[in-house]
Specification:
The protein has 285 residues and is α/β, with parallel strands linked by helices. 47% of the residues lie in helices and 14% in strands.
Length: 285
Amino acid sequence: MQNATIVLEGGATRGVFTSGVLDYLMEQELYLSHVVGVSAGACNAVDYVSRQPGRTRDCMIPADKKDNYYYGVRKFAKEKSLMNMDMIFDVYPNESHLFDYDTYFKSGMKCELVVTNCLTGKAEYYDEREDKERLMKLCRASCSMPLLTPVVKLDGIPYLDGGLADSVPIERAKTYGNSKIVVILTRNRGYRKKSVSKGLAKLYKKAYCSYPNLVRTILLRSLYYNRTMNHIERLEREGKIFVLRPEIKPVSRLERNPDTLMGFYNHGHELMEQEQGRLMEYLEI
């Protein structure tokens, strides 16, 4: 296990690229000592620590219709969610795509999952190593997209997608004290977020009128995301961090076509294989 940190961006189904990258690393038995994951990156993070190559891929690309986690538009009004979050974070880990809790809890790797506190609008970071249900609730909270899925309560506090407050936690990674940081992004080089439209801003304000700090965070997200990307690209140019990002057009964040998703997964796997030498050189292995 190498003394280094890996940072995993989210992006809903774009996270299948990251799972391809991590699966290749796991196949090579290359594990870093620290990992911090956001949204879909949180799901990838726990499967990396539990040492289960293929699990995130199989969860994101269900082979059986009974494992399909999309409610779709028809059920959205009734369920208040576009996806069956119980399926993803209860049925999958405990019944159909078993999560290796024992390996995870015994691992010496530090693994922080990022969530956004709806009351404060700030990011919080948790490393859960005892409670199975709480671990999956943290993953669920980190992946709960605003407007599309319900808030998740932990200890009575409402949480949503960690990417709202800290999309790519490079600054958090620096606090671990490791000189080597590997960043896995799910967007192409040069991507920057656009500001929230006036119409969507009104929708957020109405939907989350009880959480003004959350709304403020959502409306400022593009500003902070773009600053973070500028910072990451500067550190990358200076050789201070290692960055891997897609070199083909990413899938949409709610992509449903299994062939399209598998293609993006394979791209991540193949790209990491191509870049293994550069990564080893950076890590000085």
